[in-house]
Amino acid sequence: MERVDIDLLRGPASIPPKEKIGSLKALERLIEQSIGQSDAKAMMAPLFGIYDLRNADSHLGSSLAESGFERARVDREVPLVEQGRQLIATFVKTLCEISTVIDQGGVGV
Q: pLDDT in tens for each of the 109 residues of the chain?
């Protein structure tokens, strides 16, 4: 998510220029305009979970991992290769859902 141009999202998402905001939150604010805050949070949860997993990997002993797996909809009881498949599938599905909302909502970025 570091490569997302937050400045490009600021206008369509109505984020003031001085407000410090991360790329996931900026994308969530953009989606809120089409589907509302609670649905946007639910839609973005897997991406926040994947981001938590990324951060947990770089901080040994972090408690972010379990929350991240749950939010990313990964079943910790299945073999690791299946967990990887679930993670990728969740990521792709979430991006497709976001794309659909942006397209249908007439949000221009």
A: 667 888 888 888 889 988 999 999 999 999 998 999 999 999 999 999 998 888 877 665 556 688 889 999 999 999 999 999 999 999 999 999 999 998 887 665 5
Q: Domain residue spans in the chain?
A: 6-105
Q: What 3-state DSSP class applies to 22?
A: coil
Under a CB-based contact definition with an 8 Å cutoff, are residues 15 and 21 in contact?
A: yes
- For residue 15, the number of C-alpha atoms closer than 13 Å in the C-beta half-sphere is 22
Residues near 74 by Cβ (< 8 Å), separated by ≥ 6?
Answer: 83, 86, 87, 90
Report how far residue 38's alpha carbon sits from residue 61's, in angstroms, rounded to the nearest whole number. 31
Tokens of 44: 């973005």
Q: What is the pTM (predicted TM-score) of this model?
A: 0.83
Q: Which residue has the tokens 């609670």?
A: 38
Which residues are within 8 A (CB) of 55 and not within 5 positions of it... i.e. 6 or more apart? 62, 64, 68
